[in-house]
């Protein structure tokens, strides 16, 4: 649970913002006591309209946060954000973002929120925020060390150790999507490298590989449905996606020896064969004594990054 300031009055409230490539969701996260489970209330969503550029997205976030703060029943402790892109751990700026959010890289998110609202702000990468929420109040509750893997359009990850997010020197710890994968050998990655996990295990990678094999543009869900019917090459691509992710989880487990791994994202719905291959890939790279590691689905859904962002804000005070 979060560590509140000694003089904190309850109920305490935090403005929490979840920034994605297609939508921005803002909520008030309420704490009735230092030990109480957080409650997400007054949720509002606006379209990101990322193609309008980073400055436009920044303005939308600030406006949403200020409106929520103004409507809160008591003055919020601050603003917590989980956002797409890589976040500079020291400044709260967006250090890097891919072409899905053009111009988002370099935006001074934390300082802009403070200037507009007068409230302290703390910013995490969206997967890191999701991980904090799940580790403290969701599927990872009670675990000392938790690895979060989010497999959706891309593949992201985060590490929670002793209840705290591990951010690393630059704030980029947990970028599992750009780990080397033998399944992806020779396949270009959107980052400019090649042979990375995301190229085969993410939804975008699954769709690209299916198109390369068939010249058909299908969604990840449609490819999974074909795989469930036993149709090739969908079945091969889905199986390889699961196997590659399982191997990557094993690599992280060999380094960190976590209590639990929590999975989220659209690819997690790819079917029983995907899940079996994930386990097979994991087992192929891990000592027998560690094969009982729980690899479980996330529990909190869309509330997780909001709760995680709020918790991170409180920890920063």
Structure explained in plain terms:
The protein is an alpha/beta fold. The protein contains 9 helices and 12 strands. The strands form 3 sheets. A 5-stranded mixed beta sheet has the order 3-2-1-4-7, with helices on both faces. β9 (155-161) and β10 form a beta hairpin. α1 (54-71) crosses α2 (109-117) and α7 crosses α8. The longest helix is centred in the last third of the chain and has 23 residues, at 234-256. It is globular and about 60 Å long. The two termini are 14 Å apart. The model has no long low-confidence stretch (mean pLDDT 95).
Summarize the structure.
The protein is α/β, with parallel strands linked by helices and 317 residues long. The protein has helices at residues 54-71, 109-117, 126-137, 198-201, 203-214, 220-228, 234-256, 272-283, 303-316; strands spanning 12-19, 23-31, 39-47, 79-83, 86-87, 94-96, 121-125, 145-151, 155-161, 164-165, 260-264, 295-297. Helix 1 (54-71) packs across helix 2 (109-117).
What descriptors fit this protein?
9 helices; 36% helix; alpha/beta; 12 strands; single chain; five-stranded mixed β-sheet
């Amino acid at each position: 649970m979060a560590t509140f300031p000694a003089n904190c009055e309850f109920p305490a409230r935090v403005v929490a913002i979840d920034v994605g490539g297609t939508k921005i969701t803002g909520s008030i996260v309420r704490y009735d006591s230092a030990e109480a489970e957080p409650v997400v209330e007054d949720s509002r969503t606006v379209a990101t309209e990322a193609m309008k550029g980073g400055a436009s997205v920044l303005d939308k976030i600030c406006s949403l946060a200020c409106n929520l703060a103004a409507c809160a029943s008591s003055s919020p402790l601050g603003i917590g954000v989980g956002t797409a892109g890589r976040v500079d751990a020291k400044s709260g700026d967006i250090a890097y973002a891919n072409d899905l959010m053009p111009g988002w890289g370099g935006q001074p998110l934390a300082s802009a929120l403070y200037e507009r609202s007068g409230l302290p702000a703390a910013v995490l990468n969206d997967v890191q925020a999701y991980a904090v929420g799940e580790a403290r109040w969701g599927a990872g509750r009670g675990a000392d060390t938790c690895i979060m893997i989010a497999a959706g359009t891309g593949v992201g990850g985060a590490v929670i150790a002793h209840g705290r997010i591990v951010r690393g020197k630059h704030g980029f710890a947990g970028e599992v999507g750009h780990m080397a994968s033998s399944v992806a050998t020779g396949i270009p990655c959107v980052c400019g490298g090649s042979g990375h996990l995301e190229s085969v295990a993410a939804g975008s990678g699954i769709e690209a590989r299916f198109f390369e094999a068939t010249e058909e543009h299908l969604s990840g869900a449609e490819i999974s449905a074909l795989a469930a019917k036993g149709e090739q090459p969908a079945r091969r691509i889905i199986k390889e996606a699961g196997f590659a992710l399982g191997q990557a989880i094993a690599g992280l487990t060999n380094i960190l020896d976590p209590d639990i791994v929590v999975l989220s994202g659209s690819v997690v719905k790819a079917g029983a064969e995907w899940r079996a291959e994930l386990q097979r890939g994991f087992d192929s790279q891990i000592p027998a004594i560690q094969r009982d590691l729980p690899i479980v689905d996330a529990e909190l859904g869309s509330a997780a990054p909001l709760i995680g962002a709020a918790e991170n804000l409180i920890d920063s005070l």
